[in-house]
Design goal:
- The chain is built from seven helices and eight strands; from the N terminus they run E-E-H-H-H-E-E-E-H-E-H-E-E-H-H.
- The radius of gyration is 17 Å and the shape is globular.
- Strand 7 and strand 8 form a beta hairpin.
- It has a single domain, classed as Aminopeptidase (3-Layer(aba) Sandwich).
- It is α+β, with helices and mostly antiparallel strands.
- The longest helix is centred in the middle third of the chain and has 16 residues.
């Protein structure tokens, strides 16, 4: 399967929009993160280097833009059309990173969503939108998502979408100040020939679909 890398790109499904993160999003993004500080803290990436800290907003966006220019990342915000607003409101963030071309044709995906919007189908829809774009437009073959075993909401997202559990990765990433174990989930293009988003919107969670009522 072939494809081409294009950036910037905006993806839409119903009221949900994935669009590039912008410098001018700083105030809205920062307010959302502040409201969700306790919700996100246990899963927050940290820097294991002595005295190392996380980049500020401008540094983060600059780094993500540079990665996109090198065709190694797709840095999106998740936004939703909301009554009373002139443009979609930011409700989370989704980044496709570590894009590898050549014989691998794979990438890693990470996401977070506003706690007040959790359970509304936003995260699985956004993941499905990004995955379809990577498979169908970029021509990638494999998408991987790594999740803390204790992170129930994120685990439910990949389970609903039918990502395969590929096993345990001890001390895989530095999270919230320490090396943390993760579970690795993956999906290949051959497993969703009809498209992941279409399957999700049409049939709902994979486990629910496979379990007789």
């Amino acid at each position: 399967m072939g494809g081409s890398f294009t950036w910037p790109v905006t993806l839409e499904s119903g009221d949900l929009v994935l669009r590039p993160i912008r410098y001018r999003d700083r105030r809205e993004w920062s307010a959302l993160r502040a409201r969700n500080e306790q919700w996100l803290a246990p899963w927050e990436a940290s820097n294991p280097a002595p005295g190392g800290g996380l980049p500020n907003y401008r540094q983060m966006v600059s780094s993500l833009k540079a990665q996109a220019a090198q065709a190694t990342a797709l840095p999106f915000v998740i936004a939703a059309w909301t009554p009373g607003h002139r443009e979609p409101v930011i409700v989370g963030q989704l980044t496709v990173s570590s894009i590898v071309w050549g014989s691998a044709m794979m990438a890693t995906l990470g996401y977070w969503v506003d706690q007040d919007r959790a359970g509304q189908g936003i995260a699985p829809t956004a993941v499905a939108m990004a995955t379809d774009h990577c498979f169908r437009t970029l021509g990638l073959h494999r998408m991987e998502i790594n999740i803390r075993p204790e992170n129930g909401p994120s685990l439910r997202v990949v389970e609903k979408l039918g990502f395969r559990d590929e096993g345990y990765r001890p001390r895989y990433l530095h999270i919230n100040g320490r090396w943390a174990d993760h579970r690795s989930f993956a999906l290949t293009a051959e497993e969703v020939p009809e498209g992941l988003l279409g399957r999700w919107l049409r049939e709902g969670p994979v486990r629910q679909r496979e379990t007789p009522s």
